[in-house]
Amino acid sequence: MVMRGSLLFNNNRRTAQRFRQLAISAVGSSKIKLLLCFCIAFTVFLLLSRGSTLTEWTDSGPLDRSSSPGKGYAILMNTWKRYDLLKQSIAHYAKCPGLDSIHLVWSEPDPPSDSLQIFLQHIIRKNSRNGRQVELKFDINTEDSLNNRFKEIKDLKADAVFSIDDDIIFPCHSVKFAFDVWRSAPDQMVGFVPRKVCVESKEGKDYYSYCGWWSVWWTGTYSMVLSKASFFHKKYLRLYTNEMPTSIKEFVTENRNCEDIAMSFLVANVTDAPPIWVKGKIYEIGSTGISTLGGHSEKRTQCLNRFAAEFGRMPLVPTSMKAVDSRRMWFW
User: Fold this and answer.
1) How many CB atoms are closer than 10 A to CB 132?
2) pTM here?
3) Which helix (H) or strand (E) segment is 217 a member of?
4) What is the C-alpha to C-alpha distance for residues 12 and 41, in angstroms, rounded to an integer?
5) Angle made by CA atoms 199, 205, 210, in degrees to the nearest 5
C-alpha cells in the first residue's frame, strides 16, 4: 500500500511537472509569436515610411508660399548637356516655396535652343502656384570653365543662393528647412553634402587629405559642405569673381575640379567659422559626373594642399554640428 501510494504521488508529480513544462512552453511560444508579430508590423511600417519618402520629392500637395518676393532665394544650377535631367530638376524646384529665380550656368559651345527655353518656361509657369512668378535666366558663358559656376550675377535680387547640380533633387520641405537655417547664419555655407579634411604631419608640416562621406560618418566631424547642394550669400559670387587668386581659378579650369573646395576656402577665410550641415534625403537622378572619374580623391587632395599654400593657411574649420528638422524625425 505504501509503495502504491508513493507511485501515485510520483505519477502526480510527473504530471504536474509536464503541465508546468507545457505551460512554460506555451508562454514562451506566445512571447515568440508576439515578438515576431511586432517585428513584422515594424518592418511593414518602415517599408511604408520608406515608400512615402521615395515619392515625397514629387509630391504636388499644398506648400507654404508665405515668402515674399526679394526675401526668398535664387537657384544657381550648373548644367551640361543633360537636358532630360535639367527638365526634371526645373519642374521639381519650381514648386518649392520661397523660390524667386532660377539661373542656369550655361557653358556649352552652342546657346540653349529655343525649344528648350520654351519648354522650361512652360513648366515653370505650370508648377508655380498662387500667382508666383519665378524668373528663369540663362547665364551664357563663352569659356568652358567650372569657375563659371560662381561668376557674379549683377542683377540678382535675392541674397540667398541655392547652388545645386542638375542631377540632384531634394524634397521642397528639405530645401525650405535649409533656407531657414541659412537665414539664421547668412554668412556661412549651409548644405546637405558634408566632407572632411584629414590632417597628418609630415616632416613637421601639415599635409591635408580629402576624406569622403565614410570618414564623416565614422568621426562625426566635417570641414566643408559641397556647393553641389548648398546655400550661401550672393556676396560670395562677387568675391569669387573679383578676389579669388587667379592661380586658383586657373588651376580649377585646367584640372576641371575643385571649384567647390575653392568656394569653401573663400567663405571660411571670410568668416573663420565652420559650415552647417543640414540633414536631408538626396535623390541622385543622374549616374555620371566628375566624382565618378578615377583619381578624383587624389586630385582633390592636391587641391587642398595647393589652395592652403595659396591662402597661407588652412581656413576650413572642422565641426560636428548638424541641423535636423525634428518635426520630421522620430529619432533625432
Assistant:
1) 19
2) 0.79
3) helix 213-219
4) 43
5) 30
